[in-house]
Amino acid sequence: LVCKMGYAGYAPGNKVAEALTPLQQALRSLPLEKAQEILELLEKVTRNVVRNPGEEKFRSLKLTNPKIAASVADAPSMVDALKDMGWVQEGEMLVLPPSVRLAHEVHVVGLIDAKDWWKKEAENEKRRQTRAGKLDDEQKEIIQKMELDRKEKEAEGPVLHGSVAKKLGDGPNIMRAGDVGIGKSSGGG
Protein backbone atom coordinates (compact mmCIF):
# COMPACT_ATOMS: atom_id res chain seq x y z
CA LEU A 1 0.00 0.00 0.00
CA VAL A 2 1.48 3.34 -1.09
CA CYS A 3 0.36 6.37 0.84
CA LYS A 4 1.11 9.89 -0.36
CA MET A 5 0.68 13.00 1.71
CA GLY A 6 0.18 16.38 0.12
CA TYR A 7 -0.77 19.90 0.99
CA ALA A 8 -3.25 20.50 -1.84
CA GLY A 9 -1.03 23.29 -3.09
CA TYR A 10 -0.81 25.09 0.25
CA ALA A 11 2.55 25.42 1.90
CA PRO A 12 2.52 24.67 5.64
CA GLY A 13 1.97 27.78 7.72
CA ASN A 14 0.34 29.80 4.96
CA LYS A 15 -3.12 31.11 5.70
CA VAL A 16 -5.87 30.64 3.18
CA ALA A 17 -8.01 33.75 2.84
CA GLU A 18 -11.55 33.24 4.03
CA ALA A 19 -14.38 34.32 1.79
CA LEU A 20 -15.82 37.71 2.67
CA THR A 21 -19.38 37.88 3.96
CA PRO A 22 -21.85 40.01 1.97
CA LEU A 23 -21.61 42.65 4.73
CA GLN A 24 -17.80 42.74 4.50
CA GLN A 25 -18.01 42.98 0.70
CA ALA A 26 -20.45 45.91 0.95
CA LEU A 27 -18.28 47.68 3.55
CA ARG A 28 -15.15 47.22 1.43
CA SER A 29 -16.81 48.64 -1.67
CA LEU A 30 -17.14 52.12 -0.17
CA PRO A 31 -15.11 54.91 -1.83
CA LEU A 32 -11.70 55.27 -0.15
CA GLU A 33 -11.95 59.01 0.46
CA LYS A 34 -15.34 58.71 2.22
CA ALA A 35 -15.03 55.26 3.85
CA GLN A 36 -14.05 56.36 7.38
CA GLU A 37 -16.78 59.01 7.53
CA ILE A 38 -19.47 56.58 6.31
CA LEU A 39 -18.27 53.82 8.66
CA GLU A 40 -18.46 56.25 11.61
CA LEU A 41 -22.09 56.96 10.72
CA LEU A 42 -22.91 53.26 10.31
CA GLU A 43 -21.21 52.45 13.61
CA LYS A 44 -23.17 55.17 15.45
CA VAL A 45 -26.48 53.91 14.02
CA THR A 46 -25.58 50.29 14.81
CA ARG A 47 -24.39 51.02 18.37
CA ASN A 48 -27.65 52.90 19.06
CA VAL A 49 -29.69 49.87 17.98
CA VAL A 50 -27.48 47.43 19.95
CA ARG A 51 -27.73 49.54 23.13
CA ASN A 52 -31.46 50.24 22.75
CA PRO A 53 -32.96 47.32 20.81
CA GLY A 54 -36.56 48.25 21.67
CA GLU A 55 -36.33 51.97 20.79
CA GLU A 56 -38.25 52.56 17.55
CA LYS A 57 -36.47 55.88 16.87
CA PHE A 58 -33.16 54.01 16.43
CA ARG A 59 -34.71 51.33 14.19
CA SER A 60 -35.59 53.65 11.33
CA LEU A 61 -33.51 55.93 9.14
CA LYS A 62 -34.82 58.63 6.84
CA LEU A 63 -32.94 58.51 3.55
CA THR A 64 -33.89 62.19 3.17
CA ASN A 65 -31.92 63.12 6.32
CA PRO A 66 -29.17 65.45 4.99
CA LYS A 67 -26.29 63.52 6.58
CA ILE A 68 -27.61 60.11 5.46
CA ALA A 69 -28.55 61.44 2.00
CA ALA A 70 -25.02 62.83 1.54
CA SER A 71 -23.47 59.51 2.59
CA VAL A 72 -25.75 57.53 0.27
CA ALA A 73 -24.95 59.93 -2.58
CA ASP A 74 -21.20 59.44 -1.96
CA ALA A 75 -21.54 55.67 -1.57
CA PRO A 76 -24.72 53.90 -2.71
CA SER A 77 -23.17 50.68 -1.34
CA MET A 78 -23.88 52.05 2.15
CA VAL A 79 -27.53 51.04 1.64
CA ASP A 80 -26.34 47.54 0.61
CA ALA A 81 -24.35 47.31 3.86
CA LEU A 82 -27.42 48.30 5.90
CA LYS A 83 -29.59 45.79 4.02
CA ASP A 84 -26.99 43.07 4.70
CA MET A 85 -27.41 43.87 8.41
CA GLY A 86 -31.16 43.32 8.11
CA TRP A 87 -32.50 46.81 7.35
CA VAL A 88 -35.40 46.93 4.88
CA GLN A 89 -36.12 49.81 2.53
CA GLU A 90 -39.66 51.18 2.71
CA GLY A 91 -39.94 54.17 0.38
CA GLU A 92 -37.74 56.96 1.72
CA MET A 93 -36.98 55.03 4.91
CA LEU A 94 -34.77 52.18 6.00
CA VAL A 95 -36.40 50.19 8.79
CA LEU A 96 -34.94 47.48 11.00
CA PRO A 97 -37.75 44.96 11.61
CA PRO A 98 -38.38 43.98 15.27
CA SER A 99 -37.36 40.40 14.48
CA VAL A 100 -33.81 41.53 13.60
CA ARG A 101 -31.36 41.76 16.47
CA LEU A 102 -28.03 43.43 15.82
CA ALA A 103 -25.23 41.92 17.89
CA HIS A 104 -22.27 43.93 19.13
CA GLU A 105 -19.78 41.12 18.48
CA VAL A 106 -21.01 40.69 14.90
CA HIS A 107 -22.16 44.05 13.60
CA VAL A 108 -20.25 46.64 15.64
CA VAL A 109 -17.06 44.57 15.58
CA GLY A 110 -17.57 44.06 11.83
CA LEU A 111 -17.71 47.84 11.35
CA ILE A 112 -14.59 48.32 13.51
CA ASP A 113 -12.78 45.67 11.42
CA ALA A 114 -13.87 47.48 8.25
CA LYS A 115 -12.54 50.78 9.64
CA ASP A 116 -9.19 49.11 10.35
CA TRP A 117 -9.14 47.61 6.84
CA TRP A 118 -9.87 51.02 5.26
CA LYS A 119 -7.21 52.68 7.42
CA LYS A 120 -4.63 50.22 6.02
CA GLU A 121 -5.95 50.80 2.49
CA ALA A 122 -5.56 54.57 2.94
CA GLU A 123 -1.98 54.08 4.18
CA ASN A 124 -1.20 51.79 1.23
CA GLU A 125 -2.67 54.31 -1.21
CA LYS A 126 -0.58 57.07 0.37
CA ARG A 127 2.54 54.89 -0.06
CA ARG A 128 1.61 54.18 -3.70
CA GLN A 129 1.18 57.90 -4.35
CA THR A 130 4.52 58.67 -2.68
CA ARG A 131 6.28 55.98 -4.71
CA ALA A 132 4.69 57.22 -7.92
CA GLY A 133 5.92 60.76 -7.15
CA LYS A 134 9.47 59.55 -6.47
CA LEU A 135 9.58 57.52 -9.65
CA ASP A 136 8.50 60.52 -11.66
CA ASP A 137 11.35 62.64 -10.24
CA GLU A 138 13.89 59.84 -10.85
CA GLN A 139 12.63 59.34 -14.38
CA LYS A 140 12.89 63.07 -15.10
CA GLU A 141 16.48 63.07 -13.82
CA ILE A 142 17.42 60.08 -15.98
CA ILE A 143 15.85 61.67 -19.05
CA GLN A 144 17.80 64.90 -18.41
CA LYS A 145 21.08 62.95 -18.11
CA MET A 146 20.37 61.06 -21.33
CA GLU A 147 19.64 64.34 -23.13
CA LEU A 148 22.95 65.85 -21.88
CA ASP A 149 24.87 62.74 -22.99
CA ARG A 150 23.26 62.92 -26.41
CA LYS A 151 24.24 66.61 -26.80
CA GLU A 152 27.83 65.88 -25.72
CA LYS A 153 28.14 63.09 -28.30
CA GLU A 154 26.74 65.36 -31.02
CA ALA A 155 29.28 68.07 -30.08
CA GLU A 156 32.18 65.60 -30.39
CA GLY A 157 31.24 64.94 -34.01
CA PRO A 158 31.27 61.65 -35.88
CA VAL A 159 33.67 58.89 -34.91
CA LEU A 160 36.32 58.66 -37.64
CA HIS A 161 38.49 55.95 -36.22
CA GLY A 162 37.66 53.24 -33.83
CA SER A 163 37.70 49.55 -33.65
CA VAL A 164 37.72 47.78 -36.97
CA ALA A 165 36.87 44.14 -37.47
CA LYS A 166 39.83 41.90 -38.41
CA LYS A 167 39.51 39.34 -41.15
CA LEU A 168 40.38 35.94 -39.76
CA GLY A 169 41.39 33.01 -41.87
CA ASP A 170 38.96 30.71 -43.57
CA GLY A 171 37.88 27.74 -41.48
CA PRO A 172 37.70 27.27 -37.77
CA ASN A 173 39.81 29.53 -35.59
CA ILE A 174 40.23 27.21 -32.64
CA MET A 175 43.24 27.09 -30.39
CA ARG A 176 43.80 23.98 -28.33
CA ALA A 177 45.77 23.63 -25.09
CA GLY A 178 48.30 21.52 -26.93
CA ASP A 179 48.93 24.39 -29.42
CA VAL A 180 50.47 26.46 -26.63
CA GLY A 181 52.33 23.60 -25.00
CA ILE A 182 49.93 22.69 -22.23
CA GLY A 183 49.67 19.01 -21.49
CA LYS A 184 52.73 18.02 -23.54
CA SER A 185 55.39 16.11 -21.76
CA SER A 186 58.75 17.85 -21.71
CA GLY A 187 60.43 14.48 -21.40
CA GLY A 188 62.29 15.22 -18.20
CA GLY A 189 60.93 12.79 -15.79
Describe the 3D structure.
This protein has five helices and three strands, in the order ααβααββα. The protein has helices at residues 22-28, 35-51, 66-74, 77-85, 104-156, and strands spanning 60-62, 88-90, 93-95. The chain is elongated and about 110 Å long. With 189 residues, it is mainly alpha-helical. The chain is 50% helix and 5% strand. It has a three-stranded antiparallel beta sheet, with no helix packed on it. The protein has a domain at 22-123: Methane Monooxygenase Hydroxylase, Chain G, domain 1 (Up-down Bundle), CATH 1.20.58. Residues 147-189 are annotated as: Disordered. Residues 147-156 have a biased composition (Basic and acidic residues). InterPro entries: PUB-like_dom_sf, PUB_domain. Residues 33-103 form the PUB domain.
Q: Any chance you could write out the topology, listing elements then pairs?
A:
Elements: H1 22-28, H2 35-51, E1 60-62, H3 66-74, H4 77-85, E2 88-90, E3 93-95, H5 104-156
Antiparallel strand pairs: 1-3, 2-3
Report strand order across the widest sheet: 1-3-2
Could you tell me the strand content as a percent range?
Answer: under 5%
Specify the helix fraction band: 40-55%
Please tell me what the overall shape is.
Answer: elongated
The CATH architecture designation of the domain at 22-123 is Up-down Bundle
Low-confidence segments: none
What characterizes the major β-sheet? 3 strands, antiparallel
Q: C-alpha Rg, in Å?
A: 36 Å
Total beta strands: 3
User: How many distinct helices?
Assistant: 5
Query: Separation of termini?
Result: 64 Å
